[in-house]
Amino acid sequence: MLFQLVFFTFIVIGLIALLLEGISRYTAKKTNTNPQFLAFQRIYLLVYVPVIFGDWLNAPYLYKLYSSYGFIEDQIAIIYVCGFASSLAFGAASGFIVQSYGKRKVFVIATLMYAVSCLIKLSSQYSVLIIGRIISGASTSILFCAQEAWYIHEHITVHEFPPEWINYTMLKASKTNSVLAVFAGVLSYCMCELYGLGPVAPSILSVPVLLVAGVFAGMKWKENVEKPGKLKKVVIRSNSTTSSTRSEKKKFLKTCCQGLRTIVENSELIEVGFVQALFESVLCLFVFLWTPVLDHHNPPLGIVFASFMAATLVGGAIYRSIRSVWTKLQPAYSLVATMAVTCATVLGCVISTEPSREFPVISFIAFLFFEMASGVYFPVMIDLKRAIELDKLDVAVTTWFRVPLNLIACSGLIFLHSSSNTTGTRKLFACCFVTIIIALFISMKLVNSIKTRKSHPVVQTDDDT
C-alpha cells in the first residue's frame, strides 16, 4: 500500500507544484531584464546548478548505503554526527578561509574534496566512511560559503549592480534548487531500484557532476581576492608572511567576538536566531530519521525523497501566492503559523512510530507536511530578516546561529537514539516536538517584540550621533 501511495502522492504533489508555480509567475511583478545582469546571473547559475545537483544526488540513499554495509542504527548515527560536527567546525571558519585564500580557488578545491568524499563511499570500512563524512561536512560548508561570497562580491564590487538585485538571483537559485532535488530523487530511484545499481550509484554519479562545477568555476569565474598591492599597504611594516597570517587570524577572531556581542545586544536577533537554530536542528534530525522509519516497509526511497522536495516546492509556492495577494501579511505571523503546523506534523510522527503500533502511512504524510512547512519557513525567514533589517548583518553574526543548531542535532542523535532501545526513534521525535513547541513560543514572543518596537520607536539623540 505504501509503495503505491508514494507514487500517487508524488504525481499529485508534482502537478500541484507546477500549477502553483504557473500561478505565481502569472501574478508576479516584472522581473529584472537588464542584459548585463542576466549574463552575469547565468555565469553564476552555470556553476550553481551542477554543484547543487551533485549535492542532492547524495541525499536519498545515504542512510540506505550505510545500512547495506551492515552497520546498525547506532553506528550510522555516529557517522551523521561526525558530518554535523565537521560542518559546524568548518562552517565557523569558512568565512576566514574564503577571504584569505580566494573564493574561486577555495571553491574549486572544495569541489575536489567533495568528489573524494563521494568516492570514499565505495569502501565498507567504518573508519573510512567516518573520514569521508568528515570531509563531506567540511567541503559542503566551505563550498556554499565560497560560492555565495563570490557572487555577492562580484555583484556589488565588480559589476556595481544594486544590492536589491541580489534577491532576483537568490529566488531563481532557490527555485532551481528545489527542482534539482526532485529530479535527483527520481534519478536516484531509477539507478538504485529500477536498474539495480545499488545505493552507492548516485554518489558515484555525483563525482563527475561536481567536477564539472569545479571546471566551470575555474573557467568562468574571476578570482576576486584582495590584490597583493593592497595587502602590502596594510602590512607594509612587516616582511613576514607569518605576521600577516597572524593579523588575519586576529581580525577573524575579533569579527567573531563582535558578531556574538551584536547578537547579545539585540533581543529580536536572539529570538530569530533561536527559532532558526531550533527549527533547522529538527530538520537535520528528520534527514536522519525518515529513512529508518519508512525503509523496512519497502517504499521507493528515491520517489519518497522526490515527493518531500516537491512538497517543499508547494510550500514555497503557497507562501509566495499568499504574499502576492495579501501584501500586508507580516512575516512574523507567518512564522508562528509555520511553527504551529510543524508542531502538528511532529506530533503525528510521535504517534505513528510507537513500536507496537506503527503507522507508516501516517508517518509519510506527516513527513510531507513537515517538508511543506519547511518550504514556507525559508522564504518567511528571508522576509522576516529583511523586515527587521537583520539581512544586513555580517556573516560573522549569522554564523553563530549554526552553533546551537548543530549541537542540538548532534546531542539528539548521540543521547536519544539507540538501536538497542525500541523507543529510541520515538524519543527523538518527542524531543523534536518539544523543540518545535519552544520555537513556537519564541516566535510568538518575537511578534510581541516587533509590535513593541513599532509602537515605541527608538528616538536617536545627539549623544547617539
Task: Tell me about this structure.
Helix 11 packs antiparallel against helix 14 (360-387). The chain is 80% helix and 1% strand. It is globular. The protein has helices spanning 2-27, 35-57, 62-68, 73-101, 103-120, 126-158, 166-194, 201-220, 228-234, 241-264, 267-295, 301-325, 331-352, 360-387, 395-399, 402-415, 424-455, and strands at residues 353-354, 357-358. It is built from 17 helices and 2 strands. The protein is mainly alpha-helical and 465 residues long.
Largest sheet: 2 strands, antiparallel
Q: What is the count of helical runs?
A: 17
Any idea what the shape is?
globular
Order of helices and strands: HHHHHHHHHHHHHEEHHHH
Briefly characterize the structure.
The protein is built from 17 helices and two strands.
Topology (elements, then pairings):
Layout: H1 2-27, H2 35-57, H3 62-68, H4 73-101, H5 103-120, H6 126-158, H7 166-194, H8 201-220, H9 228-234, H10 241-264, H11 267-295, H12 301-325, H13 331-352, E1 353-354, E2 357-358, H14 360-387, H15 395-399, H16 402-415, H17 424-455
Helix pairs in contact: 1-12, 2-6, 2-7, 2-8, 4-5, 4-6, 4-16, 5-6, 5-8, 7-12, 11-14, 11-16, 11-17, 12-14, 13-14, 13-17
Keyword list:
465 residues, mainly alpha, 2 strands, disordered C terminus, two-stranded antiparallel sheet, single chain
